[in-house]
Design brief:
Elements lengths: L11 H13 L6 H14 L3 E5 L2 H11 L7 E5 L5 H8 L3 E5 L10 H7 L4 E7 L8 H11 L2 E5 L7 E2 L2 E2 L5 E5 L12 E5 L2 H10 L4 E3 L2 E2 L10 H12 L1 H18 L5 E2 L7 E2 L5 E5 L6 H10 L16 H5 L10 H9 E4 L7 H12 L6
Parallel strand pairs: 2-3, 2-4, 4-5, 5-8
Antiparallel strand pairs: 1-9, 6-7, 6-13, 8-9, 10-11, 12-14, 14-15
Helix pairs in contact: 1-8, 2-8, 3-4, 3-7, 9-13
């Protein structure tokens, strides 16, 4: 078998709706994008959704819309894709890196509280791998310190915290990259209950235009096309079923994987984990990660390290003065040394899941 780590679920309906837009020749941001925004807002349970060109743009304009600027500090997790922190640099603000919890790899509220300063203006929490972070604890910290909450939901479409969908607690930022739980090829979405934030974001995404050729603020070209939006509407209609398949696949793996030295994903109480990635942690005294990944690959099973370095250890951040061990995030560093993602996507068949289990449980390597 050849089982990839990701498999975008693009079907006949996606082809049909995007082809219809192409045939219409009305390709740029228009009514179909507006329809996608309305449907996505309704799905998340918020009053406002603004479509954008990608998830990184959503993070950028979210910070701009709440007023983050030069000299401010924004706290975020040390263990995520680099965009979660780079969006802070775009504002000429300073990222403050927070450690993660060992059981979920999500931002640690205790470490966050210790790292808040008078310069801190916002928190970017990441619902990593499809699992919501501890929203109640983070919201309490935001309330106590008068901070804005930005939710990085790039991997968590449809995930829930205490029965409420992520993206509805602060300013939500979604990505529709092909490896996400739903895709538009590229694309992003910002969700909020704040009409003023939504108004500013709509200006920012379209060159600051309040009317045709009337530019009131410095803006950008962060628009989504109607081609992407049409696909987004189709994907949104099947998101819950695709998530259900991911959850079922993860439960199968949880029940059947049995290899000494492998910590399986853990779901926090009160959450709906939608398993954008199925991430195991390997004990280095039991399993050599490189050897294990090579073994899986030789047997046709894709795997990826999400993520091999805490963000502050990336060359960019080292060049900005962040020291290799100076951020005080030992759990994030441990996670970066031990994690490995294996397939969990909705296209997996029961035979493929059984094969993943059989191959994994048959690993006999040693450090």
């Amino acid at each position: 078998m050849r089982i990839p780590i990701a498999h975008p679920m693009v079907g006949a309906q996606d082809v049909r709706v995007t082809s219809a837009v192409l045939r219409s020749r009305m390709l740029a941001q228009g009514e179909i994008t507006a329809e996608f925004e309305r449907k996505f807002a309704n799905y998340v349970g918020v009053s406002e959704a603004v479509a954008l060109c990608n998830g990184t743009a959503a993070l950028d304009v979210a910070l701009k819309a709440v007023g983050i600027t030069d000299g401010d500090e924004v706290a975020t997790t040390a263990f995520s894709f680099i965009a979660s922190a780079n969006a802070i640099l775009y504002q000429r603000a300073t990222p403050v890196f927070v450690d993660v919890k060992r059981d979920t790899f999500n931002i640690d509220p205790d470490d966050l509280r210790a790292k808040i300063s008078k310069k801190t203006k916002a928190i970017i929490g990441v619902h990593l791998f499809g699992q919501p972070f501890d929203v109640a604890a983070i919201q309490e910290i935001c309330d106590d310190n008068h901070l804005f909450l930005i939710e990085d939901c790039a991997q968590a479409h449809g995930a829930e915290y205490r029965g409420k969908k992520v993206g509805g607690f602060g300013v939500g930022c979604f990505s529709f990259y092909p490896t996400k739980n739903m895709t538009t090829g590229e694309g992003g979405m910002l969700t909020t209950e704040d009409a003023d934030v939504a108004r500013v974001v709509r200006l920012l995404r379209d060159h600051g235009q309040s009317a045709k050729y009337r530019h009131t603020i410095l803006g950008y070209n962060y628009r989504m096309t109607d081609v992407e939006a049409a696909m987004g509407i189709a994907q949104l209609g099947k998101l819950d079923s695709m998530n259900a398949k991911r959850i079922g696949n993860a439960r199968y793996l949880n029940r059947h994987l049995d290899l000494d030295g492998v910590q399986l994903p853990r779901q926090a109480p009160g959450t709906k984990h939608v398993y954008n990635q199925y991430v195991v942690a390997l004990r280095p005294d039991k399993i050599d990660r490189e050897q294990f990944a090579s073994y899986l690959g030789a047997n046709g099973i894709g795997s990826v390290i999400h993520y091999p370095l805490p963000i502050y250890q990336q060359p960019l951040y080292r060049s900005l003065g962040y020291s290799k061990e100076g951020a005080g995030c030992p759990v994030a560093e441990e996670a970066a040394r031990s994690v490995l993602s294996v397939p969990v996507h909705p296209a997996l068949t029961r035979d493929e899941l059984s094969y993943i289990v059989s191959v994994t449980n048959g690993f006999a390597g040693a450090p």
